[in-house]
Amino acid sequence: MRRLMFGFLAVLLMLPMTVLSALAAQDATPESAFADLGLPTLDVTVTADAFEGIPESVEAGRYLVTVTALEETGEFGGGVAFIQPAGMTGDEFIDMLGEVSGPPDESGVGSAAATPIEGGVATPADGEGEMGGPMGAPPDVFFQSVYAGGTYALAGETSQTVLDLTPGEWVAWGDDPESSQAPVAFQVTGEMPTDLVEPESSATLTMGEYIIEVTEGEVTSGPQILRVDNIGAQPHFIAGGTTQVDVTGADIEAILESEMTGTPAAVDFNPDEDFEEAFYSGTQSTGTSQWIVADIQPGTLIMICFFPDIQDGMPHAFYGMYTIVEVGE
Length: 329
Hints:
By secondary structure, the protein is of the alpha+beta class. It contains five helices and 17 strands. It has one domain. The protein has helices at about 5-15, 15-30, 90-100, 140-145, 250-260; strands spanning about 40-45, 50, 55-60, 60-70, 80-85, 145-155, 160-165, 170-175, 185-190, 205-210, 210-215, 220-230, 235-245, 275-285, 290-295, 300-305, 320-325. The chain has an eight-stranded mixed sheet with strand order 2-1-4-7-15-12-10-11. The protein has a five-stranded mixed sheet with strand order 3-9-8-5-6. Strand 10 (about 205-210) and strand 11 (about 210-215) form a beta hairpin. Helix 1 (about 5-15) crosses helix 2. The protein is globular, with a radius of gyration of 18 Å.
């Protein structure tokens, strides 16, 4: 499966500098952002090919997840996200990941449907993708499973997020079937506490089909905690980056079209160089929330989702799932 389909590496095709700057920004933010909440912690070290620190079992609850990527993870560092597979064990899901990232499979087109907003952008290239459909939709399990979120760090750096782990069997993975780190299955036991502590956030970002909206508070410049909610039927994530140049919806559509056709985008800026200081929230399912740390620079903030659509595998951005927010000084 193409890396365009899943995870933070997909965003590198659209905003290469954005994610790298985001991770650096997260690490630069004081770790005390969540320190006073008294949450149980999960400390994960990401090596070149493994996740260290994932226990065999943890109690259900809201966790402060701290991820440290070792230098050996290379240019893009590494991260961890959490998925509760539907209809299979953790080990079966891990075995399936090896098949999904291998040769093409024509059996994996999603069976459910979602209605895109009007004005969906960009037309897929002729021909079918690697797993059927215009882009190749992943197997149904990727849409039926529960995603709790996750976080990423540059090599040698650390990042944090707060998320919920509910009872059941979970898999810690790289949010990407082609991630070099071996996934780890673990159990979450007991019952979910009813008195969960909620981090204070400056703004709430809400995801749905096919929208990203600031529904509470305000995204401002500087270090802050953002709450990210998914109210949509499908899994979603957000990558965000700021730029000092003027960017319109037409510009974003042109960049997306260029990714599909391989022709340069007719825009007055370089999408590979003109974005900085951003954030990334790992994939989430409907009804879930996570809290991320972001250090956002003044300028034009672009937030976008590239999760593959259940109908045809097209990244959600091509259905118009992006938004532009002006962030003042």
